[in-house]
Amino acid sequence: MNSESVNVPESLCPYCAYHFEMATNVTGQGLPHAGAVTLCIRCGEILVFTEHLLVRKPTPMETEQFARSPRIEEVKRAWRTVKNELT
Ligand SMILES: [Zn+2]
Question: What are the domain boundaries of the chain?
């Protein structure tokens, strides 16, 4: 992956309460922005940035869109590979 990590305001993963201070935009569209997709490095759930660059759960409509995205599937697969190597 070719993404760059950037500092974002502190927030908590809504799934596992992981404490975020940095983020990588997994869709490769530049810096995090409202509506950009990211992945929790701890639990691997897909998250979406709010306009204040905090993370939130995707809406049901977004979840449906992400399920059809080959890019997001690829990132989730990469996350599982890394996770398996670390544990
Ligand atoms: Zn998490």
Answer: 5-86
C-alpha 19 to ligand 1 mean position (Å):
8
Provide the strand spans (E) within the chain.
Answer: 5-12, 19-24, 37-39, 46-49, 55-56
CA–centroid distance, residue 1 to ligand 1 (Å): 20
**pLDDT tens per residue across span 38-74:** 889 899 999 999 999 899 999 999 999 999 999 888 9
Question: Can you tell me the distance from the alpha carbon of 35 to that of 62, in angstroms, rounded to the nearest whole number?
Answer: 10
Q: What is the pTM of this model?
A: 0.79
